[in-house]
From TrEMBL:
SUPFAM superfamilies listed in its UniProt record: lambda repressor-like DNA-binding domains, P-loop containing nucleoside triphosphate hydrolases
Protein name in the entry: HTH cro/C1-type domain-containing protein
Top-level taxon in the UniProt lineage: Bacteria
InterPro entries assigned: Cro/C1-type_HTH (IPR001387), Lambda_DNA-bd_dom_sf (IPR010982), nSTAND1 (IPR049052), P-loop_NTPase (IPR027417)
Ranges of residues in domain HTH cro/C1-type: 21-77
């Protein structure tokens, strides 16, 4: 007489849920014995019964074999397995998952390496040394490079820990002066609102706030100010006066004779020409810029293998070779490979991260699209509309340059069911949720996910109009609803091939 199956926790995670579903299917089929099922589908009794044990996620093949042995709908079971696979990969991100033997991923995927990830950051020793050397000689440095090459990571996880000491890191967003005030205020221990008012009056007072926060520190200690995604100053900040003030504040902090800050800007190289709009910035750039390129094959190898080793795992040689070959010639592929590598980590076999796991995730070409599609496929109709409307708003159109991500206040995405939709994309690391903001994890998503690409190109004109209107509405509200300031723009008309319907993207 076979032992009865261990009861499953009805509040269990995705793996348990799948197991419970398989058991129900078997019960509905008249509870055939595992021996009988095994004979039917040519899998062992042990493999089939383990699939319904809820201890770990069975492979897709075994799940389908189980379902077939119980006359289940194979398409339906493939869908359920994929959902469980996706959710359990996400759950493995939970630090508590380590208790279940699921080591936390040493690969951040699309996300940037942060200062606290320094121990997992490899392959950039040469560049980090160069940045530190330059920063010793001068108080100002601009780091340029194409999107996805690894600027933010090298600055945050490489340079910041190497320099040490007090540091503020922020991105300019739509209101760079406010961002600067918030961070400097925290450093100086003063209220942010008051500091912002002061900086508006005189941006060069920023250097005062820097000194104020350093009072107790030894005289040789400086504040390191890192402005990442500096291109947002041009692409996202719509107010030229604020832009000029921001530049003036940054330069005052590091250029005044008793300035105690070292300022590092990281910016996408395709925005380089815009620096010329600010003569002082242009002058500061002379002899103070570093252009970052892709990693060499040796560096890439290190970046791929070392993080796994730190977690007691290894990366299969064939996988290392594949990634090195894919990324060495096109550094823009780095975020795609990073994402696929993270997925491969979740699919590792024992302590080995395998090429098969990487390919199952879609490799460089498909991993992001696949993850994004899987999240999208898991949404119901209403949530899909919401996802579409939200995601397209997270992109700033590049006129003449590539589209950029756009960080938006959560309030701007007032859409039905938005919280749950954002959470699902955030769990998959496709977007990043800040305290009160939402942003795409990496521009690579814009390029690599055909569905988003399609939405953006179909709706571009309508979206542009929609955005102009949103911005006009916002500034009208902030101008206390002055009728004289109402949107007149370039003479109001619907976009050429558009209609009112395209303003709000159709489902
Ligand atoms: N040294 C590295 N090793 C492994 N992955 C890296 C490294 N540097 C960057 N990445 C990955 O590459 C992608 C792009 O990095 P990021 O720093 O955001 O680039 P950028 O700021 O130039 O757009 C991210 O997915 C990041 O995790
Ligand atoms: Mg960056």
């Amino acid at each position: 007489m076979p032992r009865p199956e261990r009861p499953l926790d009805e509040h269990g995670g995705p793996v348990t849920q799948l197991a419970a579903g398989l058991r129900q299917l078997r019960a509905k089929a008249g509870k055939p014995g595992y021996r009988q099922m095994a004979a039917r589908v040519n899998y062992s009794v042990a493999t089939l019964s383990a699939a319904a044990s809820g201890r770990r996620l069975p492979t897709l093949e075994v799940t389908l074999a189980y379902a077939a042995a119980c006359d289940g709908d194979l398409q339906e079971w493939e869908r359920r397995w994929r959902e469980a696979d996706r959710l359990s990969a996400a759950a493995a991100e939970d630090p508590g998952a380590e208790l279940n033997g699921q080591a936390r991923s040493p690969y951040p995927g699309l996300a940037v390496f942060q200062p606290e990830d320094a121990e997992l950051f490899f392959g950039r020793g040469v560049v980090v040394d160069e940045l530190v050397r330059r920063l010793r000689q001068r108080r100002f440095l601009a780091v340029f490079g194409p999107s996805g090459v690894g600027k933010s990571s090298v600055v945050r996880a490489g340079m910041v820990p190497a320099v040490g000491g007090p540091v503020v890191v922020f991105t300019p967003g739509a209101h760079p002066m406010a961002g600067l005030a918030v961070h400097l205020a925290r450093h100086a221990g003063v209220p942010a609102g008051g500091l912002l008012d002061e900086l508006r009056e005189d941006p060069t007072r920023a250097s005062l706030a820097v000194r104020q926060g350093l009072d107790d520190a030894s005289p040789g200690v400086d504040l390191l100010v890192v402005v990442d995604q500096f291109e947002e100053t041009f692409a996202t900040c719509a107010d030229p006066a604020e832009r000029t003030d921001f530049v003036a504040a940054l330069l005052a902090m590091c250029r005044e004779p008793n300035g105690r800050a070292r300022v590092v800007l990281a910016a996408r190289a395709d925005h380089y020409a815009r620096f010329a709009e600010h003569p002082q910035l242009l002058a500061a750039l002379a002899d103070a810029q570093v252009l970052i390129g892709g990693m060499s094959p040796v560096e890439l190898r290190e970046a791929v293998t070392r993080p796994a080793e730190l977690r007691g795992a290894r990366v299969e040689g064939a996988l290392v070779a594949t990634i090195v070959a894919e990324v060495a010639d096109s550094p823009g592929a780095l975020p795609l490979a990073a994402h696929a590598l993270r997925e491969a980590w979740h699919r590792r076999q024992g302590a080995m991260v395998t090429l098969a796991g990487y390919q199952a995730a879609g490799g460089v070409a498909g991993a992001i699209a696949r993850t994004a599609e899987a999240v999208y496929a898991g949404l119901d109709g209403g949530q899909r509309d919401t996802a579409r409307q939200a995601l397209v708003r997270l992109v700033a159109f590049g006129d003449g340059v590539e589209d950029t991500r756009r960080r938006v206040p959560r309030g701007e995405l007032d859409l039905p069911g938005i919280d749950s939709v954002l959470d699902q994309f955030a769990v998959a690391r496709l977007i990043v949720l800040g305290e009160d903001t939402v942003e795409i994890a990496h521009e690579a998503l814009i390029r690599a996910w055909p569905r988003l690409h399609r939405w953006l190109s179909t709706d571009r004109d309508g979206l542009r109009t929609h955005r102009e209107l949103t911005e006009a509405a916002q500034s009208w509200v902030s101008l206390a609803r002055d009728p004289g300031a109402l949107y007149r723009g370039r003479g109001w008309r619907w976009p050429v091939n558009g209609s009112p319907a395209t303003v709000t993207p159709p489902p």
